[in-house]
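Note to self: keep these together.
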Amino acid sequence: MCYNAAMGDFDKILNNCRVLDVRTGNIYNSDIAIKGGIIAAVGENLGAGEDMSNMFALPGFIDAHVHIESSQLIPSRFAEAVVPCGTTLVVADPHEIANVCGMDGVDFMIKDASATPLEVKMMMPSCVPASPAESSGAVLDAAAVKQALKRDDIFGLGEMMNYPGVTGGDEDVLAKLKAARDAGKPIDGHFPMGSGLELAAYAAEGISSDHECNDAKEACDKLAAGMDVFIRQGSAGKQLLDILPAVNKDNISHFSLCTDDCHAADILKFGHINHVVAQAVAAGMSAADAVRLATLNPAEHYKLNCGAIEVGRQADIIFVPDIVGFKPNIVFKRGVMVAAGGKALFKTVTPDCAKVKNTLHMPPVTKEKLKLKGSSLTYAMKIKAGSLVKDMIKYKEGLPKLCVAERHKNTGRVGVCAISGYPIKGGAVAISISHDSHNVVCAGDNDKDMCLAINSLMPAGGGVCAVKGGKIHLLPLPVAGLMTCDSAEELAGSLTQIEEFCKTELNLSSVTDPVMTLSFLALTVIPHVSLTDRGLFDCDKFCFV
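Structure:
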């Protein structure tokens, strides 16, 4: 098969390829010629070149929606981890660091990412803060968003999490959406459990995608509203198996894959988008369809010139020995080999982090701040599947406490409640990663260790701290209190040690992820209840309890 007979002096010819056509699902033997980073010809007998040993040639994988900060790696280190997995492009929303550092954070992410072969399409965060109920380190209003969307290095408007603001006609929210439409740039969505007229009103504002579907029915509701569905399968959200039944030959073009949040240790252990593709195949989807969800579909959704091995498209090509495990032997980005044998072939340089360090601006937390007051004396919040839920139980002496301490403006505010479902005993765990405003979250069963865990984060610039009986285990994350400049291997090793300490020494063996579970408990835009520095918040009614 030959798509193009355009002959000339090619930069590179790849021989003996088994090309997967993501449009038709066909696999055929072919050569691939590359010129100027673009696929110039696909067909037989294009000339002598590099022998690909009959490996399967697939388009480079695309993560349709990811927060790089959630890997706890800066973009260059993230690229070092995911490119060998076959990920050649990600659409990234830096709203985590933006909630801490504002545009300085966005600019840092863009600059550091640009020094790598990984193509990062950076969205402009739409919700800084994530909602009016959160205390963030920065505020990016409609005027700031409009100005940023004029920039060539800002690809679109990031997930609009403030869905009540959209459906309720909030002027600032609507102005941000209009700015993106006027700029002709894509708008990502976030509307968990959205349906009916509210969903229709939300989609009508030009919001073209959603990654918050929990099951096939919700996915079909989003499709009916005119939105594309990004199936999330990351470290926290895992909806792949629940949504796949909604995909069929008639609607498959409206589905893509994303990770949303993917931790460094999981990338090293399992892979990145290639692992999601493998899981889809294991669940019964054809290899061609699974690959399409991670290549052609997101490329066409975002109008990108990649996602298929076709003439005129970017030469983002990965070679895998089989289409079951999808572990690349070789990765090309724009025709340049950037990874081989599971290792990156490019070097990373530690960037200038001066504007995104030293971001914990808070007074030391004292025992007095951790006292339970008011309704917190009567009720404890229950943790189920890693999230605070509405069910309340009578507070019993000895239940651990949860607190959220404001860390951006030196206010000294600390929200406190009792919790169940996180059976910590004999110590405390504190982290400066707390979606999306990233205040300090701490859980513990005694005030002394809770104060020590929280206060130990300050000189480190943020991170993770586990304490038992005064003994400190600390993982510094000095970049915005969210990320490290260390490699994925170094980060994963340190984090694993703390997690093991939590499970063996703090009675948290029943909690799948005892550290990162805490990071979602202050998020006010995911049902049902959260704890903020201002108190308990009902995420369904969008008001404080």
